[in-house]
Amino acid sequence: MANLDNFRGDGEQSIPNNITTWTETGTHATAAVTVTHAAETDKTHYLCGVAVSCGHAVGEDPDPCLVTIVDGVATILAWTVAGVGVKDVGANGGSGVVTFPHPIEITEGQLVSVTVTPEGTTNRVSCNAWGFTNDTRIE
Q1: What is the pTM of this model?
Q2: Does residue 61 sit within a domain?
Q3: Which of 40, 56, 102, 108 is exposed most, by the fewest CB atoms within 10 A?
Q4: How many separate helices (H) and strands (E) can be counted in the chain?
Q5: What does the alpha-carbon distance between residue 114 and residue 25 come to, in Å, rounded to a whole number?
Q6: Angstrom distances, CA of residue 137 to CA of 36, 92, 113
Q7: Could you report the per-residue pLDDT of 20-31, keeping only the tens digit for each?
Q8: E strand spans, the chain
Q9: Does residue 7 form part of some domain?
Q10: What is the rounded average pLDDT of the residues 7-13?
Q11: pLDDT tens per residue across span 95-129
Q12: CATH number for the domain including 113?
């Protein structure tokens, strides 16, 4: 995620005091990985994007991944990314990146989590999710 501390370039803080940015990161050797930004009382999370990767053995095609976004306990979005990675690069693979031009608003006081589940044999699953939290609800 871009450094938003001073994107105006004038030396002044450009993020309101009631906004905090965050990034959650996780990896697993062979199974699904879930990254979670914990619930905060009276605050609202906004998910701005995710980057996912499912590695594979050298010489094998990349594995597809199922990406699931959860608001509290309810799944709000799920999709399959086919063949995320690059053939013949082993566990390093490539990544699928989705940025939301209008951040996904999570229910006030609820956690947001992103799970990446490999749909084949894999040797590394990775997920990064980023967004911001607002002390007040944006209507």
Answers
A1: 0.79
A2: yes
A3: 102
A4: 0, 8
A5: 10
A6: 20, 39, 19
A7: 999 999 988 778
A8: 19-28, 33-37, 44-54, 65-71, 74-81, 96-105, 112-118, 125-134
A9: no
A10: 54
A11: 678 899 999 999 999 999 999 988 777 767 889 99
A12: 2.60.120.1300
